[in-house]
Amino acid sequence: MAVIEKIRLGLTLLGFIILAYTYIAAGFIISALMLCSCVIWPINKTIYRIINVHLGWCYWSFYTFLGSWWSNSECYVYTDMADFKHFGKENCICIQNHRYEIDWLMTSIVAENFQMLGNHKVYSKNSHKYVPLVGWTWYFSESIFLKRNWQEDKSILKTGLKNLTEYPDNYPVYMYPEGTRFTEEKYQSSLEVSRSRGYPDMKHHLLPRPKGFTAFVRDMKGKFAAVYDSEIVFEKHPKPSISTIAQRIPVIAHLSFKRYKLEDIPCKTDEECAEWLRNLYLDKDKTFDEFINNEKLKGTPYKIPKSSRGLLNVFFWCFLTCYPLFNYLCNVIVAGTSTQRIIVSVAFLFVVVILRWIISVTEIQDGGQTTPKSTQNGKQD
């Protein structure tokens, strides 16, 4: 049995290396095509956006493949039918909790199921747009990158939201108002700030930052239909992480969705909108706590099916990128020079470094103080 297990692990490692190479090679090709498409922007923005929706889907479906097909993970959605009938048929902003390394991966699987993966947008911090492949595709897809300095972010949001109103198709915008991923250290800091302002305690979330959300609600009323409260929880074992997924160990995610009409959200004053957001997070906290105590969410679960389109897309890119690679490697092994072998080794190390950099963006690390505080330099609270 030990020998069989070693063989299985060896095949898994080999398969993941091939998948990682395909992902990076395809990502560079897709990013290059997105860059070339920029010449169309001044002529016809609609055509530019249609092209990049399809290119973005080609890239992001690697992640849905990783979750659904590679690891055989499962994703269940809980909502009522009145809300469910709107999924994929309207522009919406999704308010996400941000507790896990792979919460975004499961959200991508849901978006793919409703044909909204290629044209999704995110609110993200400015440094993410420089991350190879991931950040580049977000940038070309017109996601909004914030510097966490309100004086600068006001103009960034104004321009970004204006561009979103011109978009031709229905799409989701993913927002993480907590501003950072949950860790115990950040939670204690957040709790301190929350109590100093007289807000109720939460057990499983950080105090949300309201300014970006308030700006969105004010500018997008009449242009966006709804706000979706998306709360994701994972079963305790195994650990929901990129490492777990890479080892082909399945995880099970449960997502609760609630729909709120954008026109019903109060925004006459900043505080009124901020209070609505804080109350939403209190409800999210109760939903999370309910799962912790009962190991289930309210309602009937809908299991997200695997995407056959995503599977075919990965096979296509695997053939396109691996066939010439294997031919070249065979030639180098059989009749290659020392220089060629060194180039191959350096290229392999380059792939490893790029992959490690991309993975590091998703990993949970104990961080310093990143919870909202008032400052004198215009920093967001």
Furnish the topology, listing elements before pairings.
Blueprint: H1 2-36, H2 45-70, E1 74-78, H3 81-84, E2 92-96, H4 103-113, E3 121-125, H5 134-140, E4 144-146, H6 150-165, E5 172-175, H7 184-196, H8 211-220, E6 226-234, H9 242-246, E7 252-261, H10 270-294, E8 301-303, H11 308-335, H12 338-362
Parallel strand pairs: 1-7, 2-5, 2-6, 3-4, 3-5
Antiparallel strand pairs: 1-8, 6-7
Give a description of the structure.
The protein is an alpha/beta fold and 381 residues long. It has a single domain, classed as Glycerol-3-phosphate (1)-acyltransferase (3-Layer(aba) Sandwich). It has twelve helices and eight strands. It has an eight-stranded mixed sheet. Helix 5 links the parallel strand 3 (121-125) and strand 4 (144-146). Helix 1 (2-36) runs antiparallel to helix 2 (45-70), helix 1 packs parallel to helix 5 and helix 2 (45-70) packs across helix 11 (308-335). The longest helix is centred in the first third of the chain and has 35 residues, at 2-36. The chain is globular, with a radius of gyration of 22 Å. Residues 365-381 have low confidence and may be disordered.
Question: Which short descriptors sum up this protein?
Answer:
single chain, 381 residues, alpha/beta, Glycerol-3-phosphate (1)-acyltransferase, eight-stranded mixed beta sheet, 12 helices, globular, disordered C terminus, Plipid/glycerol_acylTrfase
